[in-house]
Amino acid sequence: MKQNINIPAPPTVSPEARRALESLPDVGGPEDLAEHRALCDRVQRELGAIQLARHGVRMREQDVAGVPARIYAPATTRGDGVLLNLHGGGFVVDAGSITENVPMAAYTGMTVVAARYRLAPEHPFPAAVDDAESVYRALLAEHGPDGLALYGTSAGACLCAQLVIRLRERGVPLPRALGFFTGTADLSRRGDSESFFRPAGEQQLPSAGQFSEYVAASDRSSPQVSPIFADLRGLPPTLCIAGTRDFMLSQTALFHQALLAADVDARLLVCEAMPHAHWIFLDLPESDQAFRAMASFFAQA
Predict the structure, then answer these.
(1) Which pTM value belongs to this model?
(2) Does the pLDDT at position 25 exceed 80?
(3) Which residues, in sequence order, are CB contacts of 117 under 8 Å at separation 6+?
(4) Are 26 and 200 in contact, with CB atoms under 8 Å apart?
(5) Structure-model confidence comparison of residues 289 and 6, the more confident one
(6) Is 186 within the bounds of a domain?
(7) Distance (Å, rounded) from C-alpha 15 to C-alpha 210?
(8) In what order do the strands lie in the sheet with 238-245?
(9) Is 69 helix (H, G, I), strand (E, B) or coil?
(10) 145, part of any domain
(11) Inside any domain, residue 3
């Protein structure tokens, strides 16, 4: 199926967004994994440097519970809580451990800890969730559940959902709030928007082949892998975000619906004309609006 990525940009978005939408390529990342990781690392360093200078945020590298992490301190601290981030990147690259987090530290006035979990295919499920749990437990011991919120973008959103289901199964207190930003909680099925907005090279990939490096031999229909099949009652207040040109719009909306059905305080923000995870790689007014919406949610939850 042909993508609709080349349809004209609507007049309802900023001039900067219209120009960006008209120049977006209809391709994914490099096929060679080493090349893809090197590209993502370069983007994180270069775009991240711009963000750090703009927002006056300080970043340091530090292991937390044996897991490499990037820790962000805002110029002005407001409150003593901490935000735990699980970055995006399709489970195989680090596409956001800087760019997802610098504005969040600045706008919330809170410390942000970005866990640099082990990546597939070298480390398939549940390695990333194991690392996330280790970091979460360390932060929980220091801040308690009321001082801890959790969020992730794309693959990171999926990991966040997998983590909270595991925590509840093990009787560990849940964070006070959850940010599920353009992700999927169902690795067993494709959503409708994936048929329209996935890069052309991924269009014909069957559901059983999605994120195969990460899922490996695990049961895609298990609640531990696909949290949408878990009992979601009692999960913390959750903000879901996606864009109208986002291939994960359907999966984000489906998880939001499942949360509502479980009586969870769940909110859905859909960004006009925005592609997948636009806030972490496009320097637009709409990106800033998304970050501010996330920060406002964590401040009020």
Answers:
(1) 0.94
(2) no
(3) 67, 86, 127, 128, 131, 132, 159
(4) yes
(5) 289
(6) yes
(7) 35
(8) 58-64, 67-73, 111-115, 82-86, 148-153, 177-181, 238-245, 266-275
(9) strand
(10) yes
(11) no
Write b or e for each residue in 193-214: b if 16 or more Cβ atoms lie within 10 A of its Cβ, otherwise e.
Answer: bbebbbeeeeeeeeeeebbbbb
Number of domains in the chain: 1
Q: Do residues 47 and 278 make contact, with C-beta atoms less than 8 angstroms apart?
A: no
Q: Establish if 2 belongs to a structural domain.
A: no
Q: What would the two tokens of residue 280 be? A: 């972490």
Give me the pLDDT at residue 301, please: 87
The DSSP secondary-structure symbol of 117 reads: -
Q: Residues 79-104: pLDDT tens digits?
A: 779 999 999 999 999 999 999 999 99
pLDDT at residue 195, rounded to an integer: 84
Q: How far apart are CA 280 and CA 96, in angstroms?
A: 7
CB of 203 closer than 8 Å to CB of 233:
no
pLDDT at 3: 42
CA pair distance 87, 97, nearest whole angstrom? 5
Q: How many whole angstroms separate alpha carbon 173 and alpha carbon 94? A: 28
Range of the domain at 118: 15-21+32-300
Per residue, the 3-state secondary structure of 253-269, as one string, reads HHHHHHHHHCCCCEEEE
CATH code of the domain covering residue 98: 3.40.50.1820
pLDDT digits (tens, 9 = 90+) for 116-152: 999 999 999 999 999 999 999 999 999 999 999 999 9
